[in-house]
Amino acid sequence: MNPSPKELFSRYVMPSYAPGLTLVRGAGVSVWDDAGKEYLDFMAGIAVCNTGHCHPAVVEAIRKQAGVLMHCSNLFYNELQPRLAKKISEIGLGGKVFFCNSGAEANEALFKLARKWGSAAGKYEIVTMKNSFHGRTLATMTATGQTKYQKGFEPLMPGFVYAEFNNLDSVKAAITPATVAVLCEAVQGEGGIVPATPEFMAGLRALCDEKKILLFFDEVQTGIGRTGQWFGFQNYGIRPDGFSMAKALAGGFPIGAAAVAPALSDVFQPGNHASTFGGNPLACAAALATLETIEKESLLENAVKMGALFTDGLRKLAAKHACIASVRGIGLMIGAVLNVPAKPIEAKLRENGLLCIATGDHVLRFVPPLVVSAAQIQQALDILDHSL
Ligand SMILES: *Cc1c(COP(=O)(O)O)cnc(C)c1O
Fold it and tell me: Which CATH number applies to 58-296?
C-alpha cells in the first residue's frame, strides 16, 4: 500500500507546519478532504482564494498560458507583466510596480526601496507596529512586531523599531533622525483582525508628510478586494507612498508585488533589485484573470454586502452565546473575539464542516472567498450556532 500524504510528510517534510486535513479538491467556497467530506471554506487558503477555489476564468487563463510561454526571464519583456503592472497602477497609486513571488518578498522590496531612497541622507530605520505580521524572512520577521516569531533566530536585522498600533504618539516617539519609513497594516490580520482607526491612519499620513518619511502599507492580506475596496487603505481616504501585495493577487497562484506612488517609481534602477520568477507570464496571466473576475462579478460590492450580513449574524450569535465577546473587521475580513480559547472551537467547527482560522489565542478569523453567497453565509452561521 502506498504511504499516506501524512506518513510521507512526517518522513520527508520539515515540520515547520502541523497540518490538519488532507484536501484533494476545491470549487468556489467548498473544499473536499480525502474521505470525500465537504467543507465550507471560510479561510480561503488564508485569504488567498478571493475568487473562490479553481475559478473557471483563472483556471482557463493558467491552462492557456502554460501551453504558450510559462516562464521568461526578466532579461526579456513578456506581454503580460506590463499589462498587470498597468492594472495594479490604475487601481492603486498610479506609479510603478515590482514583481516577486510572496508577501515577504514584496515587503523586502519596500524595505530595500526605502533604504535606497534614504541612503544619501543617512536614513534607514523603519518603524513597524507591535502585534503586526510581515513575513518569515530575516528582515520581515524582524519587522513583525511579535517576539514569538523571533525567538531563537537572533540576532535580528538592524534598522527596525516598533510602535504601538493605533497610537500616534507612540509612532511619533519611535521616529528618529534616521527614520526612513513607517510600515503598517490597515487591518492587522495575524494580529487578530484589528482594524486601524481612521484617526490613526489620517495621523500617520500627516506625520509622515511632516517628517518627510515614507508611509507604506502591508496589503498582503487586506488587498485584492478583501475589505470591500481593492486595497485596505482605500477604506480610509488616504494614500500611502507604497504598498505590498501577494496572497490573493493571482487567485491561488504564487505571486507578490510592491507598488509605489509616481515619486518613487524610478528609485530602483537596473541591477538594484531582482527576482528570477517575479512577474513571469504564467503568474501574470493568473493575476490578470483574477482582477478581471473581481470586476466582472462585482466582488468588491459583494464583499461589503456579505461582510455586513456575516457580521450581523455573528453579533446575533454573540447575544445568544456568551463565549463571543465581540465582532470586528472590515468587508470579508472578520474576527470573532472569544472569551474562551479559540483553538478547540476551530477544531469543532472543522468537524462540523466549516473551516476558519484561530489567530492569537482568542480570535476566530473568517476570510471567506469574495464569491460567497448569502445562503453560504447563513450555512456558516448555522454551523457556528450549533457548534457553540
Ligand atoms: C501572509 C502575510 C505576509 C507574508 O506573506 P508570504 O507570502 O507568506 O511571505 C505578510 N504580511 C501579511 C500582512 C500577511 O498576512
Answer: 3.40.640.10
